[in-house]
């Protein structure tokens, strides 16, 4: 087994544990607050806090790795540390400025994200958001430290930072029932900060030393500014999708935002476990191969990554669509999470899952362009995705409600990944796209057969046993595994 494969599998194992803990967090939230006004407020406040700085943080961390290798090539570890500290300090100053502005304009932000909220819910959202805001600065710093460690060949830390985050969130949810709602945003603040500080000891062992550097005139900072602008627009475009989705959902039945969030969490579980693990390992490798002009290996890594995603994600898609309702019942239906919440969440999950392959391939292919220091192509794609998503949202939400919002997201992701593939074919020579198409067609046929088989096995098993959750979970596992083996 190659070093890359071992690193990817190891990261998946760690990420799986982290994601399971994340599911535990969602289960605790759903059990204590269900799909209610309070869960809606909490989730919207988290979204606002993350989105405020995520655009810049993601853009900086994305362009950091190729430029870090350029610095190392020029001046070794000393130059790499200089560049890293310069990026960190500039990010802190930008983060503080943005947080202050967002603090002042928290109410207009809340109205954009949740225009359907009543006065009580809106006031609570503003208060929660203001408490959480400054924790988002640490999110940006955390992304930079992750990129530093990945450049040093340290991949596992990326999967481990979810542990302190989720533990703190779970504790705060439990404590909030006894000491008041405001424990929720306070807990979120400390959870966000924990991700950054958790990485510091490992970074120091890999050679990182903090030093105060603040040089916006550095040539690599100037180059980063040029590269980050398209990334910011692209990431910002995807955040606009989130805002539109949340705004429309806030105008539907109470709990719609929470139902969407729970369904989306199930999909992001797959993306975080499999796709993020692949891109975290592959992206630094692609950046290094591109800088060293090893074109054949570069092309081979792209082809393998796309094939792995296709063969991995399509079976999971079949399971998520066919068994959407029993999955939601087993994971969430308890406490305040009632039959109505179950129906909304399972419908959203099924339609979100349709576009899982599109989102997965989009993440991988976008990183291919970033490794070539081409940030404009993913930007154009992100803008197209926004337009398609908004148009489809406005059409489908009238007829399908929350399911229409999820389906619009899926369709836009599929269309956009097709456009990205066309751009990749034009940009990179030497990749056998015919074999990729052949692999995809075979995988789709196998997935359809697998989906039918899974449903038959599950229905047969449920008819034989009671509705006990433990037995239902067993049947979910058995039918899913049999379907995957059958495919």
Describe this structure in words.
By secondary structure, the protein is mostly helical. 86% of the residues lie in helices and 0% in strands. α4 (119-132) packs parallel to α8 (183-205), α10 runs parallel beside α13 (339-354) and α12 (324-332) runs antiparallel to α18 (469-486).
Described by the principal axes of the CA atoms, the overall outline is: globular
Which consecutive residue ranges, at least 5 long each, have pLDDT under 50?
468-487
- How much of the polypeptide forms β-strand, as a percent range? under 5%
Discrete helix count: 18
**Class by SSE composition:** mainly alpha
How would a textbook summarize the main sheet? Answer: none
User: Residue-averaged pLDDT, rounded?
Assistant: 78
Following the backbone from N to C, one meets helices and strands in this order, namely HHHHHHHHHHHHHHHHHH
Percent helix range: over 70%
End-to-end distance: 24 Å
> Rounded to an integer, what's the Rg over CA atoms?
22 Å
Strand segment count: 0
